[in-house]
Design brief:
With 425 residues, the protein is of the alpha/beta class. Among the domains are: 92 residues, Immunoglobulin-like (Sandwich); 96 residues, Tetratricopeptide repeat domain (Serine Threonine Protein Phosphatase 5, Tetratricopeptide repeat); 84 residues, Tetratricopeptide repeat domain (Serine Threonine Protein Phosphatase 5, Tetratricopeptide repeat, Alpha Horseshoe). It is 64% helix and 10% strand. The chain contains 18 helices and 8 strands. Strands 1, 4, 7 and 8 form a 4-stranded mixed beta sheet that branches. A hairpin with a 5-residue loop joins strand 2 and strand 3. Helix 17 runs antiparallel to helix 18. The longest helix is centred in the N-terminal third of the chain and has 27 residues.
């Protein structure tokens, strides 16, 4: 039977409309509840794993969605009803299987990251622990990179975050201990330094930072006990030497001379190039009348650095104390050539001290050394004029006072010098 073409077209249009309405209805029913899972799968080193089989299944229903990770370790799977309870399973030969609950976001995209471990499948709680350590390591590495850019506060925050993820990450504790030390926050450094020594005692700086923190909070006895251990331990000898030297300075301030000498000698055994220890040992020996020891340390310094004013100065003092005037004069001449300003300042201050104490011969000797280093030193001429007048040496008094007025006519003491010259005539 032949159908009416108009009737057929009408029926077709109605069928299409009904189908479209049905499709729209079904689409609306699922569009509001679907969710995407766009995940990342790495190994413990943070490298992406390709070819991981990913299965997402609805709990209690025979509904599964599957996928596989790309070269970058990524996968994307869409579930039509994200409001249900789902399980995710990740598996690849040679790696432990991961299977755990997952909660897709209705109408959105969940972006989980998974870490697969080589070997047999392990318990979920152990896997969570490993993932936490992996996250901690990443935070620590980011902190190191941020520290390198000079963002210390940002780095410290990342180190703290890494410790939250893994309280036993010793390197993060070490980093925080050193950051606190850099700002002289010794109390803040101490707990991290102690944790560092507990967790990673093999780290060469672990004991150093603990010593510095203890020294900073003035727990000197405990710090010194650590120092003795570090001296015999053999780690970072140059850094231990500096701390032994500083401990020696502490003993000098306390007038504990034997303890000071022991620490300075420790410093030199660890680092023979720590020349300031020779200077201090020489000065202590001079004060104790041990002139041979004083000369030994002074000569050791000067042999290492022949033109260093500190070494030449202590060599001059040691020879003078030992009574060898020729050697003392030789050391002084070298010192005056190496650093005339230092010589002038040092001996001028010494001369003023002697003059005020009424020790004119010592004062004159000191001021003459000032003029040897700096012949045009005005006040050295002035004091030599005063000392010479006091000794009754009028010609020298006139000579020095006249030269002072020539060099510094506007000096406040110039008027005194003129009055004295008038009186000497």
């Amino acid at each position: 039977m032949k159908r009416n073409s108009k009737t057929l077209k009408t029926r077709l249009a109605r069928s299409c409309a009904l189908a479209a309405a049905l499709i729209l209805s079904l689409g609306t029913a699922f569009a509001g509840t679907e969710g995407r899972i766009s995940g990342q799968v790495n190994d413990l080193a943070g490298n992406p794993i390709e070819g991981v089989q990913v299965t997402i299944s609805a709990i209690g229903l025979d509904i599964r969605r599957t996928g596989e990770t790309s070269k970058k370790g990524k996968f994307t799977i869409t579930v039509l009803n994200a409001s249900r309870d789902w399980l995710i399973r990740l598996e690849k030969e040679g790696f432990q299987v991961i299977e755990e609950a997952i909660d897709p976001i209705v109408g959105g995209t969940l972006k989980p990251t998974y870490t697969m471990v080589v070997g047999e499948t392990i318990a979920p709680e152990r896997l969570a622990e490993l993932q936490s350590k992996d996250k901690s390591a990443k935070l620590y590495n980011e902190g190191v990179q941020m520290f390198a850019t000079g963002n210390i506060d940002g780095a410290a925050d990342l180190f703290r975050q890494s410790i939250v993820e893994d309280p036993d990450l010793g390197l993060a504790h070490l980093a925080l201990a050193r950051i606190h030390l850099a700002t002289d926050d010794y109390a803040g450094s101490l707990p991290h330094a102690e944790k560092t020594n507990e967790l990673v005692p093999e780290e060469e700086m672990s004991q150093i930072v603990l010593f510095d923190a203890l020294w900073g909070v003035e727990e000197h006895d405990r710090a010194l006990a650590m120092l003795d251990g570090m001296v015999s331990g053999g780690k970072v000898p140059d850094k231990v030497a500096v701390r032994a030297y500083n401990a020696g300075v502490h003993e000098v301030k306390a007038s504990s001379w034997d303890a000071a000498k022991m620490r300075f000698n420790q410093a030199l055994e660890l680092d023979p190039n720590l020349l300031p220890a020779h200077v201090t040992l020489s000065q202590i020996a001079i004060n104790q009348g041990e002139f041979e020891t004083a000369l030994m340390h002074a000569n050791a310094f000067v042999e290492a650095e022949p033109e260093n004013p500190k070494g030449l100065s202590v060599l001059y003092q040691a020879n003078l104390a030992a009574g060898d005037e020729a050697a003392a004069q030789s050391a002084f001449d070298r010192l005056a050539a190496a650093d005339p300003e230092m010589v002038a300042q040092t001996f001028f201050e010494s001369g003023v001290t002697h003059f005020n104490a009424g020790r004119n011969p010592d004062a004159i000797s000191a001021f003459e050394k000032v003029l040897k280093a700096r012949p045009e030193h005005p006040l050295a001429h002035y004091y030599l004029g005063l000392a010479s007048a006091s000794n009754g040496d009028i010609p020298k008094a006139k000579q020095y006072l006249g030269r002072f007025i020539e060099l510094a006519p506007d000096n406040p003491e110039a008027a005194v010098a003129r009055d004295m010259l008038a009186g000497l005539d």
